[in-house]
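Project channel, design review

CF: Before we commit to the Cryobacterium arcticum constructs, I'd like one complete example in the thread so the newer folks can see what an input/output pair looks like. Taking FMNH2-dependent monooxygenase.
RD: sounds good, go ahead.
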Amino acid sequence: MANKFHLGWFLNFSSPSWLGQFDGNNDESWIDGEFYVDIVKMMERGKFDFVMFEDSLMVSDVHGGSMATDLKYNMYAPKQDPLPLMAKLGEHTKHIGLIATASTSFYPPFITARMYATLDNLTHGRIGWNVVTSSEDRAAQNFGLDLHYEHDERYEMADEYVEVVKGLWNSWDPGALVRDRETGVFADHTKVHPIDHDGKYYKVRGPLNMMPGPQGQPTLCQAGGSPRGRAFAAKHANTIICSATGVSEMKAYRDDIRARMVEAGRNPDDCKVLFVVSPVLDETDELAQAKAARRAVMTPEGMDVALAHLSALTNVDFTQFDLDAPVPEITTNGHRTTLEAFLRKGGDAGTKTLRELASMPSLNAVPFVGTPATVAQQMQDAMEQVGGDGFLISGALSRQAVAEIVDGLVPELQRRGLARTEYTHATLKDNLLAF
Ligand SMILES: Cc1cc2nc3c(=O)[nH]c(=O)nc-3n(C[C@H](O)[C@H](O)[C@H](O)COP(=O)(O)O)c2cc1C
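CF: and here is what came back for FMNH2-dependent monooxygenase:
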């Protein structure tokens, strides 16, 4: 009997694909969230564990010192705040988990604790927090800093931040909400406690001015790639989303996280690691291969976007380098793992030119290509080798792309016993723990 795996979808609250022949009115219906209502309902039909909305807090102009590329290709902007969208999605769905990103570097912990507790109540226990430290100097400059905090220190701050937020969520004992009509007591003050946190980075008295939601502590999601980031994720996360390349790297990442969880005194089965993938599906394997080959062709625009992404995430302007020479040694205070993965695409560092690296398609955990039956088998094989726990679907977004997965691939996975056929629990956290 095959082991089931978990499914999530990686999204951002910006425009989905809008220039293709099958993109319909995508670009008109995202601003008020209606596009996302449509597709998240579809994903709930596919019994996805959760959707995860990433976020960033800047318009990037690192690439060539101009916002032109960012805005032309809708890369980091416009992008709306995913938190209010969670309330809207919660109204239109019943079971699927809803994870939104918030940065520990810029939001006060009291606000974060309160926002997610409120959303946990509004969604009846389906909210998750993707805990990120952010990586961009341009974001830091929107919050009073000249440059972003140092990479590992961001995680030191985040550790303390999450302890504060958890403390606030725990500042109401179970049963504190009395609502006793006879005594007229609404909430019992003896069951509500200040946290009096006075640490290196944060000073927060508490208690939270509201009771926690159905999950108590909302589901925590993380994506640390560096050693410090992984340690943080292993300590706190209920689910980890990981961009790894190839089955052996996926397995090594998951094994490392599980070992770190044991070190942190946690049961490794309490955190589900989901790997980023972009399956390419079609009616026959040949058609799917042809589609994948078409997508892999790098246009000049595609190369510009790839390099602009890298510039934004690393705070390094990639237009300064010779396209026809190997990339010189670079250090970054931004996304270290993204930079390393890019440089590693060409094998040993320094063996490929920047143009060659940028022309190679971005790497996926495993390139799943074929009919739903072929891809289901490929997914099963990969999961068996890695040991778990699931996949995070990513890639160009349209109603058509979602339908191919939800109405093509997922039923095939379900027939093979690889994907859930029903939500067995009410909360996101419990559904993640169901298998
Ligand atoms: C699937 C995935 C989603 C991510 N989403 C965000 C996000 O929404 N906002 C953000 O600032 N960083 C995001 N990150 C970056 C991670 O939080 C992390 O910074 C990155 O993986 C590098 O790891 P490190 O911080 O340990 O160096 C994401 C990473 C991955 C792999």
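RD: helpful, thanks. The radius of gyration is 22 Å.
CF: The chain has two domains: 6-170+212-285+364-433, 299-359.
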